[in-house]
Write a structure and sequence with these properties.
single chain, 11 strands, extended, Chitinase A, domain 3, five-stranded antiparallel beta sheet, alpha+beta, 3 domains, disordered C terminus
């Protein structure tokens, strides 16, 4: 087989392919046998139809079309492999010429992965904040533990912030009820956000048996679009008031809420957890910084097809997130007065940044001959399969459907990021410094996930 490669604009190439006549003749013979088994012609058994009769019935073009279905995919794949190309879209196959006892000739135009012109990517400046955990941070975690382990007891006293109220309520907009506006024996925590922001706050001071009216404005993105952004009136009857009690912060509290025997041990564990979380956050910020610095020095022309494909994936993921919140994409678009197409368009900047980052890291991994051991890939797949009904079967499926290859690429990119940080010029800064840098890095990190 002969292949000629022509570089077109941007990352598009055209292949001129010529397949030997021997392979063409073999494919035509196979096509004839295949068609003979499938075509019903009176007077002939299936599979026994002579070629002249088949050509008379179907036409020679039908035989050639069948042969092309056998030849083209294999010839195209072989041509791509021989030229070391990495296509990112389906090819446009044109100028196909097939004839018995003649070579098959065709052209295939296709977009391929763009060339990445790496700039300097070692010695890049990166700021690293010192980890400083304050006693106030530890106290805040203990306070949260207190709140989560609070107890409630019935009371005749007026409800205060944090108290639990059992209530019946009915909400109206312009005198009319709406979906979800009525409930009985609904628990409401005074001052806490809920389905109707502002409702629980309006119940501060209410007593058992009391009926109160609370006016509030429904959110602009309220799930019932007909009343979103409108003023609502809720009539609330308080059936019970439960006063909140917080346990004292002492050794007994530590024993009740954790595996530790003293409050000091619990504080130390909280401090350690906060420190580890801060280290992870700082590491993520440093990774985002070094990637941004490397991108600034690299020339990458991101293909539109990759951006569009990634934006579509981001939209699909967003649709799943909405579903978990009980909202469909159509309803979300209705509330925002937009369309799925416009939402997908909004994802394109993030999609472009993600694709550009991946191309950069792939190029660095290749330039530095970075590798990932099979053991590391297997270990990652096994961790992913934990909790599955049949982990071994799941891993086998991932090996066959391309997930394993995706995991390997992801691990290679992680190795490339680790390489960049290892070679970076790191400056340690005090906690709280370089906030602008951190903000930018955080934004980059969120776009590059």
């Amino acid at each position: 087989m002969e292949v000629k490669l022509e570089q077109l604009e941007k990352n598009k190439v055209r292949l001129e392919v010529e397949v030997e006549k021997e392979k063409v003749n073999a494919a035509i013979n196979t096509a004839v046998r295949s068609l003979a088994r499938r075509v019903n012609i009176p007077g002939f058994r299936r599979g026994r139809v002579p070629r002249p009769v088949l050509e008379l019935k179907l036409g020679k073009e039908a035989i050639y079309d069948e042969a092309l279905e056998l030849l083209l995919p294999e010839a195209y794949s072989q041509a791509v492999a021989e030229q070391g190309l990495d296509p990112i879209d389906k090819p446009l196959v044109e100028e196909v010429k097939i004839e018995e006892d003649q070579p098959l000739v065709f052209t295939a135009t296709v977009e391929v992965m763009p060339q990445v012109q790496l700039g300097e990517y070692t010695g890049l400046p990166v700021n690293k904040q010192k980890v400083e955990i304050t006693e106030e941070q530890v106290d805040a975690v203990l306070k949260d533990l207190q709140e989560r382990h609070a107890t409630f007891s019935t009371s005749e006293e007026p409800a205060a912030e944090g108290d639990l109220i059992m209530a019946d309520f009915r909400g109206t907009v312009d005198g009319e009820s709406f979906e979800g506006s009525q409930a009985e024996n609904m628990p409401l925590v005074v001052g806490a956000p809920g389905f109707f922001p502002g409702l629980s706050e309006g119940l501060a001071g209410a007593k058992k048996g009391e009926t109160k009216e609370v006016k509030l404005t429904l959110p602009a993105d309220f799930r019932v679009s007909e009343v979103a952004g409108k003023e609502a009136l809720f009539t609330v009857t308080v059936k019970e008031v439960h006063k909140k009690s917080l346990a004292p912060l002492d050794d007994e509290f530590a024993k009740d809420v954790s595996e530790f025997g003293t409050l000091e041990e619990l504080r130390n564990a909280i401090r350690q957890n906060l420190s580890e979380a801060a280290e992870r956050r700082i590491r993520e910020l440093m990774e985002a910084q070094v990637i941004r610095r490397a991108l600034e020095k690299t020339e990458i022309e991101v293909p539109d097809v990759l951006v569009a494909r990634r934006a579509h994936t981001l939209l699909h993921n967003f649709e799943h997130e909405l579903a978990h919140r009980g909202l469909s994409l159509d309803k979300y678009c209705e509330i925002r007065e937009t369309t799925p197409e416009k939402v997908e368009e909004e994802f394109k900047p993030a999609a472009s940044n993600q694709v550009k980052t991946e191309l950069l890291l792939d190029a660095i991994a290749k330039a530095e001959n970075l590798t990932v051991t099979p053991e590391k890939v297997t270990e990652t797949l096994e961790r992913m399969a934990q909790g599955q009904k049949n982990p071994e079967k799941r891993i086998k499926e991932w090996t066959e459907d391309g997930t394993k290859d995706m995991v390997e690429r992801s691990l290679l990119r992680e190795a490339a990021v680790a390489f960049l940080l290892d070679k970076a010029d790191i400056t340690e800064t005090a906690a709280g410094e370089s906030e602008e840098e951190e903000a930018q890095s955080s934004e980059d990190a969120s776009q590059g996930d």
